[in-house]
């Protein structure tokens, strides 16, 4: 195997903060936010959850600050509904609206915060209790890779290089297990049980752990990566993260997304998307081959099976093939003929 030149340099990769903290400490509401985050930390919430709550509530406090609101007791349900409308009409720098999921993340954080404020007797009642989160329209994934397209991507990776072995192992795990980008970033070296062909996913969505199956091909590639590649990337002997960058660091979600996007482009797949393409592909291909929806739900880590039902719509291609092969009136060469009027 070949080293990949300057990418193997052992200098520390400087990470830039992905988000800039909004300066709201001068507002009286920020003290309540600090107490809330401290309470969450004591209760065992993950750092990732704390960051999300902090970011969402800071944005709300900034909105309040612009309206001279600095006391939680002064905030009413109509004010919160006005903020909800603000999120709905807000436009990002590129002119696009916030996704419904993003709007709901912001509002859910605020609802949780006010629930805590009420429980701790900082407010006499909870103005957010009856604020409804927006109903997110169910959308099909824009792109679903075929089995052939997935294989094309996998086999386009140059596995004669150390970097290629790692990249192939990452793609194999994404396709075999359907785990989310962030879940792959959090994998530890001891999370893969090759004997029982299972993978332990820690702190998935909702901070929930789960064990899921993993295919033998993915296991073989991860084993090859661990034996031949990871020791050469490792800088800190105490580092337990499974997949490491060329700088010996754990992947961030952003860095992993860029890597997968580069591999897709490299394979000539001119389709939008990244890591989630493999999650959609896994679920759709399993469903096509007869897997029950409840099993796919467990693997994907969906708390509600309604979220998983979107994949039943993606199986339409297989249904069309079966219909064309078995229905007597389905073949394309069937002609319309007959006599008389149509009633």
Please tell me about this protein's structure.
- The protein has 343 residues and is mainly α.
- The chain has 2 domains: 29-119, Tyrosine recombinase, N-terminal domain (DNA polymerase, domain 1, Orthogonal Bundle), CATH 1.10.150; 147-323, hpI Integrase, Chain A (Orthogonal Bundle).
- Helix content is 50%, strand content 3%.
- The protein has 15 helices and 3 strands.
- It has helices at residues 29-42, 47-65, 77-89, 100-119, 147-156, 162-177, 181-185, 216-228, 230-233, 253-266, 275-288, 293-300, 305-308, 310-314, 316-326; strands spanning 192-193, 198-201, 210-213.
- A 3-stranded antiparallel β-sheet has the order 1-2-3, with no helix packed on it.
- Strand 1 (192-193) and strand 2 (198-201) form a beta hairpin.
- The protein is globular.
- Mean pLDDT is 83; it is low at 2-20 and 334-343.
Poorly predicted ranges: 2-20, 334-343
- At CATH level 2, the architecture of the largest domain is Orthogonal Bundle
* Overall average residue pLDDT: 83
What's the story with the biggest beta sheet? 3 strands, antiparallel
Order of helices and strands: HHHHHHHEEEHHHHHHHH
Question: What is the CATH domain class of the largest domain?
Answer: Mainly Alpha
Helical/strand content category: mainly alpha
Helix content: 40-55%
Count of the domains: 2
In total, the number of strands is: 3
CATH superfamily caption of the largest domain: Intergrase catalytic core
Give the SSE layout.
Blueprint: H1 29-42, H2 47-65, H3 77-89, H4 100-119, H5 147-156, H6 162-177, H7 181-185, E1 192-193, E2 198-201, E3 210-213, H8 216-228, H9 230-233, H10 253-266, H11 275-288, H12 293-300, H13 305-308, H14 310-314, H15 316-326
Antiparallel strand pairs: 1-2, 2-3
